[in-house]
């Protein structure tokens, strides 16, 4: 039997799947099923009116049986399903709910006159109710059919018919009703099993896809972090190169200091110090002090600006800041790298533009745009011009326009320019995440929008509109 049910698609080979399906099938939309059971009890009792029409003298016992079945079996079975510990036995409860009134209906017909002449109609109503409104599987419905049909046939032998062929007609009608209902129950269960299997497979694929997506996002996060660190590394290299000059000059001047001080010490020790020699030494020391101070101040400013930019990008804190001062600090760290490659940087920003935003994210945006331009806009190594214009659109928005006079972007690449991992310079180590990071930071963190215009040999213009105060 188990093998046959497997072939018919009415059973799962895995017992765990079978158990989960049975629980879902029998308890799905339980409130609707309970409402149907209450309706069934009401209809079962309401047919006592038909009993009165058929046989008024037997109406009392028939009605008593109907009420007893409803009060003792149908309504308690309905209420029992509201108790969670009883729900694992839901199918058995349904079976009792169906079998008892189906069998007792044959007992009622024993009291009625003309007895079983109308028995087939009553049984077909019960069969129709069971097959359409209760979630019985094929085995349970088969048990219901065997028990109720046997009871009907048994009690019908106690009755007499004016037409002897009526017994055959009744059983033929009931048998046809059972057969059709069995097919309907089987088809419903088959569809439910197929849907259950499809849902399970979709859930497995969904879990697998979510796991793959989580892994992809983690990988992307690592790559983005690596890209940010790489950009910061280039800033470090540029700043370090720029600091070498003032530090070197200060070191050379201090060495000269040591030489002049040594000469002065020897002259004082010999007692042959002339006024002109002392004056010249003081002037040299004074000039050296000025050179050391100016160069160390320049180095300190570079370090301080770089420190602020690095802290902003690392901490990602929100604060209010003056855009002009912030931009000067940022370009003091980017400037060495750009000037080393021969590029000219032009800034245009009105004074007094104050925004409440994330300076680290904005610094990352400008840095990535500048570095991306150096790599892609001037691939042949020629020098170019980068321009950054900042203006107020209105009281609530600012606009940052970044332009270069490089080779531009081919038309076919424009739709993909902000896609992750899209790059035309992978052979030079590019990851394709620079502009993707820019897009995400502008649209998500900074709550703005970004537009790009470019053409071959006409350069690139990137316009960023940002709220002056984040929501």
Automatic annotation (TrEMBL):
Q: SUPFAM superfamilies in the record, alphabetically?
A: ATPase domain of HSP90 chaperone/DNA topoisomerase II/histidine kinase, Homodimeric domain of signal transducing histidine kinase
The domain of life is Bacteria
According to the record, the segments passing through the membrane are 35-54, 60-82, 94-112, 118-134, 165-185
Q: Which UniProt keywords apply?
A: ATP-binding, Membrane, Nucleotide-binding, Phosphoprotein, Transmembrane, Transmembrane helix
The parts of the chain that form a coiled coil are none
What this protein catalyses is: ATP + protein L-histidine = ADP + protein N-phospho-L-histidine
Broad enzyme group: transferase
* GO MF term list: ATP binding; phosphorelay sensor kinase activity
CDD domains from the UniProt entry: HATPase, HisKA
InterPro entries named among the record's database cross-references: HATPase_C_sf, HATPase_dom, His_kinase_dom, HisK_dim/P_dom, HisK_dim/P_sf, Sig_transdc_His_kin-like_C
Q: Which residues form the Histidine kinase domain?
A: 238-470
| The protein, known as | histidine kinase
Q: What Enzyme Commission number(s) does the record list for this chain? A: 2.7.13.3
């Amino acid at each position: 039997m188990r093998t046959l049910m497997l072939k018919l698609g009415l059973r799962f080979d895995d017992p765990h799947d079978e158990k989960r399906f049975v629980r879902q099938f029998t308890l799905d939309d339980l409130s609707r099923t309970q409402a149907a059971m209450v309706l069934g009890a009401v209809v079962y009792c309401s047919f006592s009116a038909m009993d009165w029409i058929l046989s008024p003298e037997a109406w009392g016992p028939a009605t008593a049986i109907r009420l007893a079945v409803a009060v003792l079996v149908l309504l308690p079975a309905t209420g029992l399903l509201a108790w969670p510990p009883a729900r694992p036995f839901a199918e058995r409860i349904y079976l009792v709910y169906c079998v008892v009134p189906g069998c007792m209906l044959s007992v009622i017909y024993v009291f009625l006159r003309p007895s079983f002449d109308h028995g087939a109609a009553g049984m077909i109503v019960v069969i129709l109710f069971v097959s359409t409104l209760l979630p019985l599987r094929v085995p349970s419905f088969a048990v219901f059919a065997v028990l109720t049909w046997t009871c009907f046939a048994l009690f019908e032998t106690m009755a007499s018919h004016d037409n002897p062929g009526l017994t055959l007609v009744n059983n033929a009608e009931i048998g046809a009703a059972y057969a059709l209902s069995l097919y309907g129950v089987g088809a419903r269960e088959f569809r439910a099993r197929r849907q259950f299997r499809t849902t399970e497979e979709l859930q497995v694929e969904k879990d697998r896809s979510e796991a793959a997506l989580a892994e992809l996002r983690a990988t992307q996060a690592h790559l983005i972090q690596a890209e940010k660190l790489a950009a910061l590394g280039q800033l470090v290299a540029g700043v370090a190169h720029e600091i070498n000059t003032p530090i070197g000059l200060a070191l050379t001047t201090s060495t000269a200091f040591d030489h002049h001080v040594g000469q002065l010490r020897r002259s004082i020790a010999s007692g042959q110090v002339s006024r002109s020699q002392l004056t010249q030494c003081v002037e040299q020391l004074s000039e050296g002090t000025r050179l050391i101070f100016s160069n160390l101040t320049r180095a300190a400013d570079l370090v301080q600006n770089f420190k602020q930019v690095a802290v902003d990008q690392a901490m990602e804190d929100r604060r209010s800041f003056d855009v002009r001062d912030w931009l000067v600090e940022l370009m003091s760290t980017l400037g060495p790298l750009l000037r080393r490659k021969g590029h000219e940087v032009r800034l245009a920003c009105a004074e007094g533009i104050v925004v409440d935003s994330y300076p680290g994210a904005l610094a990352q945006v400008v840095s990535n745009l500048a570095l991306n331009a150096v790599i892609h806009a001037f691939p042949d190594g020629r020098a170019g011009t980068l321009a950054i214009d900042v203006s107020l659109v209105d009281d609530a928005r600012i606009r940052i326009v970044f332009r270069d006079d490089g080779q531009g972007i081919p038309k076919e690449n424009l739709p993909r320019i902000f896609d992750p991992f899209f790059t035309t310079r992978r052979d030079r180590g590019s990851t394709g995440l620079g502009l993707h990071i820019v897009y995400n930071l502008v649209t998500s963190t900074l709550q703005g929008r970004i537009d790009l215009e470019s053409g071959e040999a006409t350069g690139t213009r990137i316009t960023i509109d940002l709220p002056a105060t984040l929501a």
